[in-house]
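Quick log. Single chain, no ligands specified.
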Amino acid sequence: MATALNDAKVLKMSRTKQETKLSRASKAASIPTEDIEHVFAYWREIMNKGTRAQLSPERKELIGSAIHDYTLETCLEVIRGCSLSSFHMGGNKQRKRYDSLDLIFRNSDKIEGFLQIAEDNPFVEPF
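-> predicted structure:
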């Protein structure tokens, strides 16, 4: 059984060079708005952002591009992985949270790193 991280890497490798070079805006435009809103709502809930965090055009583009490259389910797991990182949730010298969407979806290394944390800590459905 393949893990989400392996699935994400295979999906990324199977894209053509032209698809890989698409801009974030082009990638995001191909993703349904509902999917982007779902990922944003999940991030807002998991990171306790409340209603103060807004889905700006930049965030729509960032999330849409990530969904295009990795899948909706993988993006949700990446957010969960960040929420499981003590360092990123404020357990660091500066006592600062590093949980922005810009950080989480900054590049493949960040995405795959957070995905690995999520896979190392499987989600268990509460009773």
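The chain is about 60% helix and 0% strand.
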